[in-house]
Write a structure and sequence with these properties.
By secondary structure, this protein is of the alpha+beta class. It has helices at residues 17-28, 32-35, 46-52, 93-107, 122-130, 175-185, 244-253, 290-303, 307-310, 313-319, 336-343, and strands spanning 8-11, 54-60, 63-73, 76-84, 112-118, 134-141, 144-152, 167-172, 189-196, 201-207, 213-218, 237-241, 262-263, 270-275, 281-286, 320-327, 333-335, 351-362, 365-374, 383-394, 397-407. It is 25% helix and 38% strand.
Length: 408
């Protein structure tokens, strides 16, 4: 999706001091006329900073293109200096260093991070405020007024990685009747069957084609389920089928009462309800046709090549997964924040897609491959590339998790 050259982030070494100084001079020298004095980052002793603080650099082909100085003071975790060579501004390297600073602050036990900038560097304040920093004080000293800004940090909470539903447990009144219903009428495969004499209870493990299971239990004198009016708790169990009408007809032929088919107003899929021998509501729900997935992913993939989408951080965030990664045509590894940042200043080229193919790797994973053509513009010539993407289904939405481009 982008073609900028890669960079590497690493801790600075003593030998980097002169290069960091040169980087800071180039990054801040245009402020001299505005401030009427030399910005402090241009005169800072970076050799001492490397020895006593936490200094990071971004390098490209072993040359320092950006630098970050972090420190811990009485006020907390400080971004003392962040400097990016002018020709590399807008590529995402500055944002990458800011994100690194936040990770370091959290790693070292801080719940916020702060920085300061000259009040006349208005564009810097605008940038920092846009990413969550809030001004909390000003301090004037030696003809300089510093604006102090702080950003609260939250530790990233890693969501439990639930893979799928393993089984649903159902308690029945008449074990023999329910056993016949689930095995002969619905056709579920028996995995295991056990009688637990101490509880006078049967436990029947049944498998669906995707590997999920139903555990059918019998208990003496189990109370009836409250179905109508609807009660709290599990509402119903739904089975996916490719042809709802055919499945409903098959049930009806075996004497099972099936409700008239309906259409889900949100998905357009057909569905119907019936009940097991104990009145548990069961649903038949129409699967997404495979050909529709191809059309959907073509639409979503194509959207990422549109000018209006690439210019919108909100739309990009909707299409890219939270932990998105890209290996670009140039060899750069991109994250979602870096992509969004880089596309802000993109010289747009029209792109076309051909030879588009979709392969479903798992129920929630699809591999997309295609050929992309980028039209020529004054900034760069036309180009062709082979593209591949992994799309992941989460919470009902397909989002791109990985993308790779190979030049032709």
């Amino acid at each position: 999706m982008s073609g900028a050259a890669p960079w590497v982030l690493r801790r600075a070494e003593a030998s980097d001091a002169a290069f960091i100084t040169a980087c800071a001079i180039e990054a801040f020298r245009h402020y001299i006329s505005r401030l009427g004095l030399t910005p402090i980052p241009m005169t800072k002793d970076y050799g001492t900073a490397i020895a006593n603080a936490q200094v990071w650099v971004a390098t490209q082909q072993n040359e320092v293109i950006a630098a970050l100085v972090l420190d811990v003071t009485d006020e907390g975790f400080l971004i003392d200096v962040i400097a990016v060579q002018p020709e590399h501004q807008g590529t995402g390297v500055g944002r990458a260093l800011l994100e690194l600073a936040e990770r370091e602050a959290l790693r070292q036990g801080h719940d916020s991070i702060y920085l300061f900038t000259n009040e006349k560097m208005t564009e810097n304040r605008t940038l920092y405020e846009r990413i969550g920093y809030v001004e909390y004080k000003r301090l004037t000293m030696a003809e300089r007024t510093r604006v102090f800004l702080r950003k609260p940090l939250k530790k990233e909470v890693t969501a439990m990685q639930l893979a799928r539903i393993h089984h649903v447990a159902i308690v029945c009144a008449d074990y023999a009747r329910s056993r016949r219903f689930y095995t002969e009428v619905l056709g579920l495969r028996i995995v295991a069957e056990n009688y637990r004499a101490a509880r006078a209870s049967y436990k029947l493990d049944l498998a669906l084609p995707d590997g999920s299971q139903i555990e059918l239990f019998s208990f003496p004198d189990a109370p009836a389920r409250a179905t109508r009016p609807e009660a709290q708790g599990l509402r119903h169990l739904s089975f996916e089928v490719h042809d709802v009408q055919a499945a409903a007809d098959e049930l009806a032929a075996q004497g099972i009462v099936v409700e008239p088919l309906r259409i889900d107003e949100y998905t357009g899929r057909r569905f119907t309800f019936f009940a097991d021998p104990d009145g548990l509501p069961l649903e038949l729900y129409e699967a997404t046709p495979a050909e529709n997935l191809g059309a959907l992913l073509l639409k979503l993939e194509g959207a990422l090549h549109l000018r209006e989408v690439r210019a919108s951080a909100v739309q990009i965030e909707e299409l890219l997964d939270d932990d998105f990664r890209e290996l670009g045509v140039s060899g750069t590894e991109w994250t979602r924040p870096a992509i969004i940042d880089a596309l802000r200043d993109e010289a747009f080229s029209e792109r076309t897609i051909s030879d588009f193919r979709v392969q479903r790797m798992a129920p929630d994973i699809a591999l997309v491959t295609y050929r992309a053509h980028r039209a020529a513009i004054p900034e760069r010539p036309e180009a062709d590339s082979l593209r591949s993407s992994l799309w992941r289904l989460r919470r009902g939405r397909w989002r791109m998790a990985f993308h790779q481009g190979t030049p032709l």
